[in-house]
Write a structure and sequence with these properties.
heterodimer, A: 302 residues, mainly alpha, two-stranded antiparallel sheet, B: alpha/beta, seven-stranded mixed beta sheet, five-stranded mixed beta sheet, 14 strands, globular
């Protein structure tokens, strides 16, 4: 009986000491709580990135195509020296920027209407309409666009019905621009909506009381407060376009290759080291983009 | 959260991160080296086929183990087939290389084409087979018994299966009169209407065209090109790019472009002609009189095949005349075993001739089968452009 009591007492005192230790060192409790998720994040997410960077400095044996674990900068030298890769990188970044601007221009009025003008029921309906495309597979949507833009497709059928000539958009960079802008639009609408919705009505009233017209209020009050939302949305649209390879493969034509397509080709050859080296380019571009986004306050408001 | 705790947390995270990086780097350092060809010294495989292991894992072109003939095999041998359809040669190589190479201990056989087979052999991903265990091999057309794309130093890294030419396809309502030779694919007249495969081996098609249109270049084999011949070929391809609407990655994409009217002329495979004609698209395929490039597929045995007995049973089964005929007509290709001819005609009258299986051996010399280009030109010279050079140039042409 006493043994049990003693054991119980010592257990109790151990628990007390433990909780006292936690109380004295608050970081210990937090550290233990977060250890597992941080470890998963570090190993799975950053580990994958790290292995990518490491293999970018390797090479393949030209005869067996097996990976040779010898440190070299040859892959980066090839990327730098061959203007083909500059052309492909320029095309990828250029299109990602064009898609981002297009989506921002399209999303702003739509998000403004949803956030500040539409009655609640309309708002719900619009939300469904914006999100509906995301319910279907990304591939299905791209294939749908391919049939729309094809020579015998819906677009030319409508144009011809109106007495206009064929648009000739199938398998062009313009087709890629249209499809990218379409598939990533919801990712711009939602953050812009969130930013606009949080603008207090009193700000707008104050602007009016001070004699500002609608356009001045838009310029001096609404837009500055919406910028963090637009920048947050642009991170999605820019990075999603930058890393894509399916849309260029399916709706792009001759001379539409993205960085992702070359990476896919090289993985397939298989030349993993070169693929890894080229894959670091979007990582660097995104890093620079995020730094600029931080300057613009994208991470403070959202 | 207090200021101090945040700093501790940051240090803890940094520590974990460094650890993770070290582990990853170490893992990468050790992993790849084990894929060196360990089995390639084995001259012949087993001397007899043992009892089936109950399963067979295939990397295949779609329909290469169609249930129409594979179900019977499963019933006879008890080898249950698990199939992974591949869409391109590169995908096949990638699948075989995954998990440390040699099929990763997961795959038994891969139906590799000639632009992948030598890469798999050199990488040690496939191992030699004992061809004596596959009786139908003796009946094969001579050129498919030990072709350069699957036999190295007298060792057979699998068994030839089926082949097909790369054909010139055109839309009969839009291209009038129809083209008669490969020059059409390089003719500015058809700008914006052309599709060709997005495959580095396509360089051989341009070289094959130059072989006949510019004899002074002295091209003898479109897969063995010296610097001068190669540069001329790439220059031709760079001009062609301006005319090309679509470089198709999967033949189904090329097919869709024909069906949707986006292209009217291109290089593609007989299976696509059949599919398009079945959908009443007005297309016609030709093999110009000079010949064509072609692909030939091989069932290759993975170096780490977990079910070798079932794999041998399948190679034996897939090369029998009846199965050869069935597969040929399902996919739209030509058997390597001429004894399949009567079986083909039984399924579809006249199909043996339609797929060129009854052609004289001389005719087969006009088909230049895919093989991986190497520095050894085959004529004593070793200044030919190897496959790496082909890959780089192809990216420069299409990228």
């Amino acid at each position: 009986m006493t043994e049990f009591a003693e054991a119980g007492a010592s257990l109790r005192s151990a628990r007390l000491r433990l909780s006292a230790a936690f109380w004295r060192r608050p970081w210990l409790k937090l550290g233990l709580l977060l250890a597992a998720p941080v470890l998963v994040f570090a190993v799975v997410y950053l580990g994958a990135l790290a292995s990518l960077f490491v293999s970018a400095f390797w090479q393949i044996d030209s005869f067996t195509a097996a990976v040779v674990h010898k440190w070299t900068l040859d892959n980066f030298k090839t990327l730098w020296d061959d203007h083909t890769y500059w052309r492909i990188t320029g095309r990828t970044i250029g299109l990602a920027a064009a898609v981002t601007v297009t989506d921002a221009v399209l999303a702003f009025p739509l998000a403004y209407f949803m956030a500040r003008i539409a009655p609640p029921r309309w708002r719900a309906l619009l939300f469904v309409a914006v999100l509906l495309p995301l319910w279907s597979s990304y591939l299905v949507r791209i294939y749908a666009w391919r049939t729309i833009l094809a020579k015998n497709g819906a677009l030319n059928w409508v144009l011809n019905g109106l007495g206009l000539p064929d648009a000739g958009l199938a398998y062009t960079n313009t087709a890629m621009w249209i499809v990218f802008s379409y598939v990533w639009l919801p990712f711009m609408v939602l953050p812009v909506y969130a930013a606009l919705e949080r603008i207090p009505d009193s700000y707008l009233e104050a602007s009016q009381d001070l004699g500002a017209k609608g356009s001045r209020t838009l310029r001096s009050v609404i837009l500055p407060l919406a910028i963090p939302g637009i920048v947050a949305g642009s991170i999605f649209t820019f990075s999603l376009t930058l890393g894509d390879f399916i849309t260029p493969a399916l709706v792009g034509g001759a001379g539409s290759s993205f960085i992702g397509n070359i990476v896919e080709d090289k993985v397939g050859e298989p030349n993993i080291p070169f693929a890894a080296a080229f894959a670091t380019v979007p990582v660097v571009v995104m890093g620079i983009y995020l730094l600029i986004a931080r300057r613009l306050g994208a991470f403070e408001a959202v | 959260m207090s200021r101090i705790s945040r700093r501790y947390l940051a240090w803890a995270a940094l520590g974990l991160l460094t650890g993770a990086l070290a582990i990853t780097a170490a893992g990468c350092g050790g992993g790849g080296s084990s894929s060196k060809s360990s089995e390639s010294t084995t001259t012949v495989g087993p001397t007899s086929i043992g009892k089936g292991e109950g399963a067979l894992n295939l990397i295949e072109w779609p329909y290469y183990s169609d249930p129409k003939f594979a179900t019977k095999f499963e019933q006879q041998t008890g080898c249950k087939i698990h199939r992974k359809d591949a869409g391109s040669s590169n995908q096949m190589v990638s699948l075989m290389r995954a998990g440390g190479g040699g099929g990763g201990g997961q795959w038994d056989l891969v139906s590799a084409s000639g632009d992948a087979s030598l890469r798999l052999i050199r990488g040690g991903d496939v191992k030699p087979v004992n061809i004596n265990l596959i009786p139908s091999w003796n009946d094969f057309l001579p050129i498919f018994k030990s072709p350069a794309h699957n036999t190295v130093d007298g060792k057979h890294y699998g068994v030839s299966l089926q082949w097909g030419p790369n054909v010139l396809l055109y839309n009969t309502t839009k291209i009038k009169p129809g083209p008669t030779n490969w020059g059409a694919l390089y003719d500015p007249k058809y700008k914006g209407q052309i599709t060709i495969p997005n495959n580095p081996i396509q360089i051989a098609d341009a070289a094959f065209y130059l072989q006949h249109s510019q004899p002074d270049l002295g091209i003898k084999d479109p897969y063995e090109l010296n610097k001068k011949q190669f540069d001329a070929t790439i220059a031709l391809l760079k001009n062609q790019r301006k005319l090309v609407k679509l470089y198709w990655v999967y033949d189904t994409d090329g097919r869709a472009a024909f069906a949707n009217g986006d292209v009217s002329l291109g290089a593609i495979w007989p299976v696509d002609t059949l599919a398009l004609q079945a959908k009443n698209v007005p297309v016609k395929e030709i093999i110009p009189t000079v010949g064509a490039t072609g692909w030939a597929d091989t069932w290759m045995l993975a170096a780490k095949a977990p079910h070798p007995n079932c794999a041998y049973k399948w190679m034996k089964y897939a090369t029998t005349p009846q199965v050869q005929a069935q597969q040929a007509l399902i996919f739209g290709e030509t058997p390597v075993n001429p004894k399949a001819c009567p079986f083909m005609n039984k399924i579809e009258a006249g199909s043996c001739a339609k797929y060129h299986l009854d052609e004289p051996l001389k005719w087969y010399n006009t088909i230049k089968f895919w093989k991986t280009p190497v520095a050894d030109c085959g004529d004593g010279n070793t200044d030919c452009m190897n496959y790496n050079a082909w890959l780089t140039a192809w990216t420069q042409v299409t990228g």
